[in-house]
Amino acid sequence: MAAAEFPLPDVGEGLTEAEIVQWRVAIGDEIAVDQVLVEIETAKSLVELPSPFSGTVTGLLVSEGDTVEVGRPIIRVESDASVASGAALPEPVAGGASPVADAAPVSPDVATTVPAPAAPAAAQAPVQAAPVQVAAPAAPAPVVAPTPAASPAPVARAAAAPAPAPASAAPTPVADGASVQGTDETSGAVLVGYGSATSSPSRRKPGARRAAALAAEASRASSADTAALAEASSDPGEDSTADAVAAQGSNIARKHTAAVTVLAKPPIRKLAKDLGVELVDIVATGLTGEVTRDDVIRHAKQASVFQNIETPEWGDVRRETIPVKGVRKAIATAMTTSAFTAPHVSLFVDVDATRSMEFVKRLKTSPTFAGVKVSPLLIFAKAVIWAVRRNRSVNSTWTDREIIVHHFVNLGIAAATPRGLIVPNIKDAQDMSLLELAQALEELTLTARDGKTTPQQMADGTVTITNIGVFGMDTGTPILNPGEVAIVAMGTIKPKPWVVDGEVRSRMVTTIGASFDHRVVDGDVASRFVHDVASVIEEPALLLD
Fold it and tell me: Domain ends where: 148, 169, 199?
């Protein structure tokens, strides 16, 4: 029998430490090669580490909640064949916040690796500070992570270490892609690590997770609401977000006055009843003060956004302390560095998005886009890509010594997740059709929501979009994603008075905000870029150019 210790590997992006979130094995468990050992949280994502060997767990060397440096041993395994011969060692698998795997977790494929020759135990070097990197590009593909039967409690370092292996023992076989890091001078345990394989995320089409998400949403809706929303979905204003919540205060007061007359046609009254909203609570935008179909749908969506938010009790504890670590620490560092390094300049413009909303409506009814989520963000993303092509310097990186202008677009989408703000990006978005981009946006959203975003998916972004409109905000001054020189904010889309051909009409209007690194992007270039984005939102036919 031989003892092997597994050090915390570098899971990519040059990270130096990670937090132990949850052990998936316990002392005494029999484990197999590729079985998930532990879930860790790096500064960028949750990652599941698979086992590079099989055998019996004899020691968990760190506890849940500990922050561990790369290269420090975290688990000890006793086995007569510590690593399965000839088995390729997979890259760490990105994991969600839950210890139970989702229906179809996303992870990189098994990397093509370079075998590391095994050395006799007596000749092996002392323990190295970090694992030897073995880089080999591979195309990722979905795999199903094993689901443990139970979650172990935090375990301290094992009380007694296994007996040292004799110097003349046969060399421990090592899997392809693994690398022997050395031998512990005290216990004789073999230290095994593996490198992080650099791979580009594939353009995976939405699959089981999208179906599961849709099924979950459907289960929460009543049949009456579902039918009403389906009828309402043909309206071009369905994707616009709600008006400011403050406007509801006056409506609530108005509701409780002695007599309130609400102007609304019978079909509109029926729609409001089917959606479970009160007409008196709705802000009317009709030219004669009449409640329109858009008003009802917008109010229903506003209610659905906040209906599940509960106001917790203060409790007896007067203060709560939240450790600054993991994603929150990474966000703080990135935003501080960006704000105090890059000189920001921001521009804003109001845009008539009526034709974009009509275009979205047509795409939703198109057989080509059947089963694919289509929203105004899709048109906005295409507009940004189109404008980048005409203003290349906004797609750059500043390095103090040079400006690197990228001839590709890795389009970042700022995503609010339960773990905090992350910015995954769509690789080579400039080469995607409208359908491919819609699928990529949906996959990115579902992956971020499930907590499955990998460090590779957040690396190498070139320009970013932040969609603050989903929160009912008109605009803002976004902070640049570090390493980029432009970020564009998409505001809420809602009916507003707009002058068309000399007449005031109700149009679907949004506000575009953008921030730039003034070291790279001059005012005229920034203005042209924002103008180009606005032009496509006003007239999507420009995308045919």
Answer: 199
CATH of residue 347: 3.30.559.10
How far, CA to CA in Å, does 473 sit from each of 238, 369, 540? 17, 28, 23
d(CA 533, CA 469): 16
Residue 417 lies in a domain: yes
- For residues 19 and 55, membership in a common domain is answered with yes
Same domain assignment for residues 185 and 235: no
What average pLDDT score do residues 19-46 get?
85
**Active-site residue, from 256, 299, 407, 518:** 518
Q: 521: burial class by Cβ within 10 Å (0-12, 13-18, 19+)?
A: buried
Residues in the chain: 545
The total number of structural domains in the chain stands at: 3
Residue 518 among the catalytic residues: yes
Domain of 97, CATH number, reads 2.40.50.100
380 and 490 within one domain: yes
- Residues contacting residue 410 through CB under 8 Å, at least 6 positions apart: 425, 426, 427, 428, 429, 460, 461, 462, 463
531 pLDDT exceeds 90? yes
* Residue 73 confidence (pLDDT) above 70: yes
Is residue 252 over pLDDT 70?
Answer: no
Q: What is the pLDDT of residue 275?
A: 77
Strand partners, 496: 507
Q: Does residue 183 contact residue 121 with C-beta atoms inside 8 Å?
A: yes
* Token representation of residue 426: 């769509």
Higher pLDDT, 215 or 444: 444
Residue 512's nearest CA partner among 329, 370, 387 is 387
- 281: CB partners within 8 A, 6+ apart: 248, 251, 252, 255, 299
Q: 3-class secondary structure for 26-87?
A: CCCCEECCCCEEEEEECCCCEEEEECCCCEEEEEECCCCCCEEECCCEEEEEEECCCCCCCC
Rounded to whole angstroms, the Cα distance separating 199 from 201 reads: 6
Whole-model pTM: value is 0.52
Strands 93-94 and 67-69: unpaired
User: C-alpha 520: how far from its chain's center?
Assistant: 28
Question: Which of these ranges, 156-160, 227-231, 376-380, has the smallest mean pLDDT?
Answer: 156-160
